[in-house]
Specification:
Radius of gyration: 23 Å
Oligomer: single chain
Strand content: 5-15%
Number of domains: 2
CATH architecture of the largest domain: 3-Layer(aba) Sandwich
Helix content: 25-40%
Bound molecules: pyridoxal-5'-phosphate
Largest sheet: 7 strands, mixed
CATH class of the largest domain: Alpha Beta
């Protein structure tokens, strides 16, 4: 597409955007009485309009039915989580029986590792990325320790090469092959939170399986952002949170995928709880654990209905928008536009020490909507000044600013206005 750095062009694109009406489904914070430029949907997605109504329904039914609400509520609480199987399957590229909404992301990562990190004296290593999100690092370190291994020995961390920002697929494949005899698990962020790099999950999965390891992905930044085909890619398991691109609210209920190959395997060790117990005989309150034959068999506790009411409102919007195919189509164009705006800004910057370096891959197939930028020569002051001008973006130490134009609610005009805000802050006009 040929882009142009004018308000007319941006407005024209918005007029042609088949998803434009979804912006109205979301609540934007205000700055000086005007909607902010919100580019932090990668951190906390905006609140969908339907959330308040959905939560009110559950509060009313709780008041009206009390304990009977488990079966008599408009959305019976006993089976509330079952409403998520179809939409999550669509968004994650899975079968409905392979996905479940439960707990929170790091909790689910631990639960999956109970089943899929089964180290032996010889095969005990975990391969991950070097700049993994801290919570994931802590989860992997403590899992290795629980099994009695030395963390430095058990964890293989793949880093970008010296002087580079992104991880090379060939380096991941080589590390998998080099450690094939000792590798128990490959667990990587499918889309890196810091750089916005989307990894080639099917190729990594194949390589890991060839080495005899299980392969799982943390999809915190991929869920609701890029197209996923977890079943087709033959991934063993995956976990995600829902408060980022899935717009389900702070600390919202998370999700997990467990491949069809594993869901009926009663031999696979797991942590048990009553909500993972066979649904039809759960209330016989029998002594021995009989897991459900779906991903629900990994649930522990009864479902957090109030949190799920928000999740439901959020997923409804995704389904109305037609899922990830139309969203990704817009995302490629919109993020491409923001990338163009940044290139135009660099042309206008006269100070030789100042440069906005986009470190996210240029290829749309290797990224989602997020652009990560190193603001050379200005850094944190630049971020602070943007914030004062009603721009929501975020700063990650030591020097990365992240902008996520989200296709569900961001517009081309937002991207253009961001460029104008940067021009003002850097005194380019
Ligand atoms: C956001 C994020 C988390 C947060 O974990 P919670 O358990 O939801 O608090 C963990 N890992 C990654 C990769 C993330 O992006």
């Amino acid at each position: 597409m040929r882009y142009s750095n004018t308000l007319e062009f941006a407005k024209e694109q918005d007029k042609k955007d088949p998803l434009r009406k979804f912006r109205k489904h979301f609540l934007f914070p205000k700055h000086n009485g005007k909607e902010v430029l919100y580019f932090t949907g990668n951190s906390l997605g905006l609140q969908p309009q339907g959330v308040l109504k959905n939560i009110k329904v559950e509060l009313e039914d709780w008041a009206k039915y009390a304990v009977e609400g488990h079966f008599d509520a408009r959305n019976p609480w006993y089976s509330y989580h079952e409403m998520f199987a179809a939409p999550l399957a669509k968004l994650m590229g899975a079968k409905p029986e392979e996905v479940v909404a439960m707990n929170q992301l790091t909790v689910n990562l631990h639960l999956m590792m109970v089943s899929f990190y089964r180290p032996t004296a010889k095969r005990y290593k975990i391969l991950c990325e070097s700049n993994a999100f801290p919570s994931d690092q802590y989860a992997l370190q403590t899992q290795a320790k629980v099994h009695g291994f030395n963390v430095n020995d058990a964890l293989i961390e793949i880093a970008p090469r010296k002087g580079e920002h992104l991880i090379r697929l060939e380096d991941i494949e080589k590390a998998i092959n080099d450690n094939a005899d000792e590798l128990a698990l490959v667990i990587i962020g499918g889309l890196n939170y810091l750089t916005g790099q989307l990894l080639d999950m099917p190729t990594i999965t194949k390589a890991g399986h060839k080495a005899g390891a299980y392969v799982g992905f943390d999809l915190a930044h991929a869920a609701g952002n890029v197209q996923l085909k977890l079943h087709e890619w033959n991934v063993d398991f995956a976990v995600w949170c829902t408060y980022k691109y899935l717009n389900s609210g702070p600390g919202a209920v998370a999700g997990a995928f467990i491949n069809e190959r594993h869901i009926k395997n009663k031999e696979l060790p797991r942590f048990g709880g009553w909500w993972g117990y066979d649904k039809d005989t759960r209330f016989l309150m029998k002594h021995d654990f009989v897991p459900m034959q779906t991903a629900e068999g990994w649930q522990l506790s009864n479902a957090p209905v109030l949190s799920m009411a928000a999740h439901k409102a959020a997923l409804d919007v995704f389904m109305q928008a037609g899922g990830m195919v139309p969203l990704c189509k817009k995302s490629v164009a919109l993020t491409g536009y923001l990338e163009y705006i940044v290139a135009e800004l660099n042309k206008k910057i006269k100070d030789k020490k100042v440069k906005l370096e986009v470190i996210t891959p240029v290829n749309p197939a290797e990224r989602g909507c997020q652009l990560s930028i190193i603001a050379h020569g200005i850094g944190r002051d630049f971020y602070n000044a943007l914030t004062k001008n009603g721009v929501f973006c975020d700063w990650r130490n030591p020097n990365v600013i992240r902008f996520a134009p989200v296709p569900l609610y961001n517009s081309f005009e937002d991207a253009w206005r961001l460029g104008q805000a940067v021009e003002k802050v850097l005194k380019l006009k």
